[in-house]
Amino acid sequence: MTMGDRLRELRLRKKLSQEEVARHIGITRSAYSHYEINNRQPVYETLIKLSVFFQVSLDYIIGGESIREEQMTADTLEVIQLFNTMNKDQRKQSISRMRELIAQNE
Predict the structure, then answer these.
(1) N or C: which end of the chain has fewer CB within 10 A?
(2) Average pLDDT, the chain
(3) Secondary element (H or E) of residue 21
């Protein structure tokens, strides 16, 4: 299943139009339409917004295994939502700090 197929499936499950999804994540309907028909690939920030909006993992959207909201912990969802509000530098710093914390526990 392609990313476009997944996006379309997720949108239809929520019974939403392309316009509604696009408006919610801050892009044009035309751009979103191109994602569904696999003519374009969304940038990373848009992928994160789609992941949060549809409550699935980035991996699921790009074609990997399904991780739905009910499989995610509250902490995981909070991290995704916080990450979505950060600018590029804040994201890099956050990732670096998380790696440091993990390395300390190994």
Answers:
(1) C
(2) 87
(3) helix 18-25
User: Three-state DSSP class for 2?
Assistant: coil
What CA–CA distance (Å, rounded) separates 69 from 54? 9
Stated pTM of the model:
0.61
Please give the helix or strand (H or E) that residue 105 lies within, else none.
none
Strand, helix or coil for residue 88: helix
Q: Residue 19 is encoded by which pair of tokens?
A: 């316009």
Residue 101, amino acid:
L
Q: How many whole angstroms separate alpha carbon 18 and alpha carbon 42? A: 15
Q: Give residue 74's pLDDT.
A: 73
pLDDT for residue 69 is more than 60: no
The residue with greater pLDDT, 56 or 70, is: 56
